[in-house]
Design goal:
single chain; mainly alpha; MetI-like fold; two-stranded antiparallel ribbon; 9 helices; flat
Length: 327
């Protein structure tokens, strides 16, 4: 082991860079701690056990102002995950449909799909969220609610559907009932949740649609011609020959869109949906511990993103090498 060995020099330079980065990080941490002490600002995560003192709109997890900040952040995390799971499912379904529609041999179908994709991709997501939320607020009030189906009501308070309910030890179907102050019972979807899911899913679907279209076009045309020569109908050619090969091209780019949907869900604060970022803002404004609150939220978003990336990469590896793709 001498300095003339390139491996030794490479290891030494890497160790030097890591040591310099760690030294800078320690200096920043010490300086930040000193500044906080001088200004009398508390540090640490003890605030998570204190009473929050604010309310959160009703959701899957019950919450009151007497609950702790930790529970408030847990409510925000559940709300964020709920939006992301539903949004990813809808975005994938709509995206595949848009991508295949753009490849349609029917000109009107291809033109309509292309127009939708271009409009969604070239307008800001925040503007789209405002549009969907404003559209929901233009609906009539609870007493004049629309009823497209029996037991289903749509108003500016949200969408109300029949839902399962436990009664006397058994499961029954609970229907929404109109009272003096609005609907109660059954399953309800708030306008904020609906606008956020629709905005995120349609916006992301436009990008996934282009990814699907590019993945299908990346498969060699000879694969399609060979399948057609065997007598397979167009639908089965697409399902059993083209899409399995196109997935290796589609999945990596689609993973990036899933992660973008996760990060874009933080725009929920603009329309009043209590997601993780919205509750974090309220928490740091009340406690003044911005560093801890931001660090905790950053860690949570990073962990969710890494889990999504890991799952999609594992799926991509299981598909095997690309066969028949154009080079």
């Amino acid at each position: 082991m001498t300095w003339a060995d390139t491996r030794v020099r490479a290891f030494a330079w890497q160790a030097l860079v890591v040591a310099a980065v760690c030294a800078v990080a320690i200096m920043l941490a010490l300086q930040t701690a000193q500044n906080l002490r001088l200004r009398g600002i508390a540090s640490g995560f003890d605030y998570l056990g204190r009473m929050s003192g604010f309310e959160i709109a009703p959701g899957p997890v019950s919450f009151s102002s007497r609950d702790t900040y930790a529970r408030a952040l847990a409510v925000g995390l559940v709300n964020t995950l709920r939006v992301c799971v539903v949004g990813i499912f809808l975005a994938t379904t709509l995206g595949v449909a848009m991508g295949l529609a753009r490849l349609s041999t029917v000109p009107i179908v291809s033109a309509v799909a292309g127009t939708i994709v271009e409009v969604l991709r070239n307008t800001p997501l925040l503007l789209q969220l405002f549009f969907w939320y404003s559209l929901s607020q233009a609906l009539p009030g609870p007493h004049e609610a629309l009823s497209p189906l029996p037991g289903v009501f749509l108003s500016d308070r949200g969408l109300f559907l029949p839902g399962l309910d436990w009664r006397d030890g058994g499961m029954g179907l609970a229907h929404p009932a109109l009272s003096r102050y609005g609907f109660h019972g059954g399953l309800s979807i708030s306008p904020e949740f609906g606008a956020l899911v629709i905005g995120l899913s349609t916006y992301t679907a436009a990008f996934i649609g282009e990814i699907v279209r590019g993945g299908v076009l990346a498969v060699d045309r000879g694969q399609t011609e060979a399948a057609a020569a065997l007598g397979l109908p167009r639908g089965k050619v697409l399902r059993f020959v083209v899409l399995p090969q196109a997935l290796r091209v589609i999945i990596p780019a689609t993973t990036s869109q899933f992660l973008s949907l996760l990060k874009n869900s933080s725009l929920a604060v603009a329309i009043g949906y209590p997601d993780l970022m919205s509750i974090t803002n309220t928490t740091l404004n009340q406690t003044g511990q911005a560093i801890e609150a931001i660090a905790l939220t950053t860690t949570v978003y990073l962990a969710i993103g890494l889990i999504v990336s890991f799952a999609m990469n594992m799926w991509n590896r299981r598909l095997g090498p690309v066969v028949g793709a154009r080079t």
